Amino acid sequence: MNLQNRGTTINLRISAFLLLSGLISDMCSNPLFAADNIETRGYVISMVHTASYADEQTCPSGTNGSRPDVLIRRVMADGYNREEAIRIINNVRINGGRDDAGNIVGTAITIGGGAAPGGIQSWNGLDFNPANIPGALPDPNAFNAEGRFSFGLNLDGEVGLDSWEHPNTGERGIDNQMWRVLGCWDNYHVNKPVNPYNETIAWDTAVDAMPAWLISISGEDLNQDGEVTVAFDRALNIPLRDAYGSIMSGASFGLDTNPRSHNVFAGRIKGRVLTIEPGDFYIQGESQFYPHLRFTNTQLRFELKDDGSLEGHIGGYQPWRDYYHYLSVRGETDGMIDLIGIFYDLKRFADAAPDPATGENTAISSAYFIEAVPAFHVDGKGSLLAESVGAGPKFSGPAVSQYSNQQ
Amino acid sequence: MMLICLLANILNAAENNERDGNTGNNEEVTFVRLSSDQYRNTIHDIFGESILVRGNGSSSGVREAGLMAVGGRRLTLSASEVESYELLALDIANQVLHPSRRRTLLHCAPQNEKTLDNECAAQFINTVGLHLFRRPLSKNEVDAYVEIARSATESLSDFFFGLQAALVGMMVSPDFLFRIERSVPNPESPSTRQLDTWSRASRLSFFLWDTTPSPALLEAARSGELMFDEGLNQQIERMMTSPRIEDGLRAFFADMLAFDRFDTLDIDSNLYPRFTKNVEDEAREQTLLTIADQLLNKKADYRDLFDSRQTFLTPALAALYGVPIPIMQELGGKVPWVPYEYPENHARVGLLSQVTFLSLFSHPGASSPTLRGKAVREHLLCQLIPPPPPDVDFSLVRDTDNPNFKTVRDRLTEHRNNPTCAGCHTLMDPIGLALEVFDASGVYRTTENGADIDTSGQWAGQNYADANELAALLKDDPTLTSCLVHRAYSYGTARASTPTEVQWLNTTHTQLRNEGVRWRELMHRISRNPDFYTVPESLIMEDE
Fold first, then answer.
1. How far is A82 from chain B (nearest CA, A)?
2. Is the per-residue pLDDT at A44 higher than 80?
3. What is the pLDDT of residues B164-191, one digit of tens each?
């Protein structure tokens, strides 16, 4: 399809879109966009969450449970037995967290909320939130995921002792240390169709207010195997919902011209599976969970589904403090985890980007599940940049059209 | 409930009323109930846009001669509707006479807010009554409403509550809820009768603007100039050049295109997940925006509505239609309407391919070529399709999973083998089958149950391959434009046309068809036609 022809010159009286010109000219100067025989398909990301996989081998010693289990363990660590701990926790809103003798229990049940100022609670008589300085508390030594399988990608091209095997493809050498950190928390210890609760709720809430995240794939014939270019961008508008509450496919999205969230990768399609050459990735979000998502050595593996959607995983080395930030902003109650334990485990399992000064790794291999549905991408001049190609008959015109200027 | 009792008194008072000299010898000839839109427009025009009209007083009307406007003549008020109107009036009166607003409407101040100020109350009733009743109130009427105000003031020792009661009384009066048209002898032809000056103002205003007469029009009525061509034409010109002409156009097409069906529209969102409530609301607006833009802004021919590629879309509508639009919506901002033009040879052109028509004439879970074809015949061509006989077996037509009849064309073809059904279905189905590429929600498709959809057919002996070709044939059919001309006239008079009027309409149609069937010209011609203000003998006889 000829994208140059599609971009029929049309006057568009939308001042906001004038800002787009920089990016669009950049995109149009890309040989891929200028070629006559290139088709570009657009998508909007409809779901993102940590790639989770759990079987009987994942947590052989049991899971870490959820928020109540965290609190019980903390109270017990202060010298109470389980029954006493449960009684103290159950009565916390009545008596302020006192034991049977009327003593304030202190640290054990006061850690919660988030890392934000609103989460400040007293700790041993001080206004102090340990989530802000997690290293001030001892490592609770939470259980970590083990076993053979995990979703993810082979980031270093090697099959190491700490790598996993992909449960669907059988590929070995999957690097996903993030899963070791998260996999034994009940919140994450799930398989499709159940998603990690905390992240799903956060995404579902944020998606109605956050500029959408877009993917486009360009190539000569996207129905065939071949070389392609894959781009990720941030949109100017939010997704629409259909009657099910799902993200509506076939909607139009304007591209945010800020190059900060513009990512381009060389890729290929083979057997309806999309992969890319590794590279850096950054996309700005606005959600309470993902203020941004960034990786180095980014890879992905997306299936091109028959209904026109994409589904798969993206991953790379992610600054582990990013993930700690995601969780601590939402707090332990929403996250249903032990922030202190997560902090120590993220630090422990970080496997990339060593700090030159300390030698400590600052990034951790991780993987996220991505689902994206077909969408149109348009520029500020009303030109079509990417076609929405769904399961139904192709029906869109060759170009976005305006006639307001003729009135 | 107190006001219900008062209503009876008011009605009695009205019956015993002697009209002012200005309307002497007047005979009431037509009662047409205000539509809910007309009620809302009237309240906003009289009391301001800030007054909230929370609800509808009446149930849906009835369609007669193809129009709800004509059916409005047949409507009365049930007890429950009177009660609904009373509640609505109470709410509105409470807002109108709220301390923050009363000064804008009340040009006098009571000497004592705890007792009735006769003069101030009468002034308020006279002023507001003129606009609510669309004519001056007689002295007896004013006295009756002042009496209501007195009684309520004394009960609660509050002058403004007294005015509220009087206002509610006027707003539940038939003189407000119905457009009561009155006639006077025609001086040029004493054996015939014509609308009096106030009724002319109402007819013009509801016809052209879908609302109560403006102060300027009422002043023209008071001066008597509406009874003469020059004065009447001046007012028509003034109204035709106002942007409010769009309100009249919207009201007419909402009636003609059966938008009342939106009240009961129930497209199954399990089967058609793109058809959200937002889409439904936006589809309605899309159709009206498109018509208004074509007929008023672009001065297009009515026929162009059926093959125009120009329309307006929102993001949700564009997603349903499967087309890209530029994004103008700011986060949290108003839903944008984007002017959009389909490319050449696009399958979706004209009104018949819009979600409004496609969904209004579908079943909740399936498209219906029969309903769509019937709608074209009845609403656009003014033809009448008789109802199906009572003993028809529809089971095959509804068996959408039948492997032997994968498409609705297959099922309807089989259904037409029944000679009882064939007569009408032959008229309806071919039109609707051309639109089968659009499902019940308006989404484009090319197959049904895996089988290719055949959109071909014949119209007036000419073959068409698809909906676009059918639209071109319809556009050339004189029945299409004739229907518009006749419907527009009946919409204005709220009755079927007389033989004399039909003759005039046929002549006008022929002329317009040659010159261009343009909305403003049609409105001009109808509004200037003396017969438009003449009372048919049949109505006088009905009244007698």
1. 49
2. yes
3. 999 999 999 999 999 999 999 988 887 8
Residue A93: domain span:
67-136
What is the structure's pLDDT at B540? 62
Q: Are B324 and A396 an interchain contact pair (Cβ–Cβ within 8 Å)?
A: yes
pLDDT at residue B20, as a whole number: 37
Asked if A242 has any chain B CB less than 8 Å from its own CB, the reply is yes
Judge if A157 and A124 occupy the same domain. no
Same domain, A152 and A80: no
Q: Are residues A293 and A314 in the same domain?
A: yes
Mean residue pLDDT across chain B: 89
Tell me how far CA of residue A350 lies from CA of A180, A359, B375, in angstroms: 10, 11, 68
Residue A16 contacts B, CB cutoff 8 Å: yes
Q: What is the pTM of this model?
A: 0.86
So what's the ipTM on this one?
A: 0.83
Determine, yes or no, domain membership for A97.
yes
Confidence of residue A201 (pLDDT cuts 50, 70, 90): confident
| Pair A170, A264 in one domain | yes
Provide the shortest C-alpha distance from residue B332 to chain A (in Å): 8
Are residue A278 and residue A165 in the same domain, yes or no? yes
Per the DSSP assignment, residues forming a β-bridge with B133 are none
- What lies within 8 Å, CB to CB, of A191 at 6+ separation is A52, A53, A54, A55
Whether B309 is in a domain gets the answer yes
CB contact (8 A) between residue A401 and residue B342: yes
From the CA of A384, how many Å to the nearest CA of chain B?
A: 7
B325 located within any domain: yes
Mutate to test the interface with A, among B327, B328, B443, B453 (most CBs of A within 10 A): B327
* A252 interfacial to chain B (CB closer than 8 Å): yes
Measure A293 CA to nearest chain B CA, in Å: 21
Nearest to B10 by CA among B103, B92, B85: B85
Please give the distance of CA B384 from its chain centroid, rounded to a whole number.
20
Dump pLDDT digits (tens) for B481-523. 999 999 999 999 999 999 999 999 999 999 999 999 999 999 9
Determine which helix (DSSP H) or strand (DSSP E) holds B29, and give its type and residue range: strand B27-33
Q: Identify the burial level of B483 via C-beta atoms within 10 angstroms of its C-beta, where 0-12 means exposed, 13-18 middle and 19 or more buried.
A: buried
Which of B304, B323, B331, B359 has the highest number of chain A CBs within 10 A, making it the mutation to test binding with A? B323
**Which residues in chain B have their CB less than 8 angstroms from residue A407's CB?**
293, 297-298, 339
Residue B472's H or E segment, with its range, is helix B467-476
Size of interface A-B (CB pairs under 8 A): 118
Which of B476, B502, B522 finishes a domain?
Answer: B476
* CA atoms of B212 and B216, how far apart (whole Å): 11
Q: Which residue from A254, A380, A395 is facing B322, i.e. has the nearest CB?
A: A395
- The domain tally of chain B equals 3
Q: Which residues from chain B sit within 8 angstroms of residue A252, using beta carbons? A: 315, 318-319, 324-327
Q: Which residues of B touch A382 (CB under 8 A)?
A: 326
Mean pLDDT, rounded, for B83-104: 93
Which residue type is seen at B343?
A: P
Query: Do B429 and B327 sit in the same domain of this protein?
Result: yes
Residues in B whose CB is inside 8 Å of some CB of A read 269-270, 272-276, 293, 297-298, 310, 315-316, 318-332, 338-343, 346-348, 443-446
Residue range(s) defining the domain that contains residue B414:
252-476
Residue B228 lies in a domain: no
Last residue of a domain, one of B425, B458, B476: B476
Residue B155: CB atoms within 10 Å: 12
**Angle, helix A320-335 to helix A67-77, in steps of 10 degrees:** 90
Please tell me if residue A2 touches chain B, with a CB cutoff of 8 Å: no
Contact B295, B340 (CB under 8 A): no
SS3 at position B100: coil
**Residue A121 in this model has a pLDDT that exceeds 90:** no
Most confidently predicted of A117-126, A272-281, B19-28: A272-281
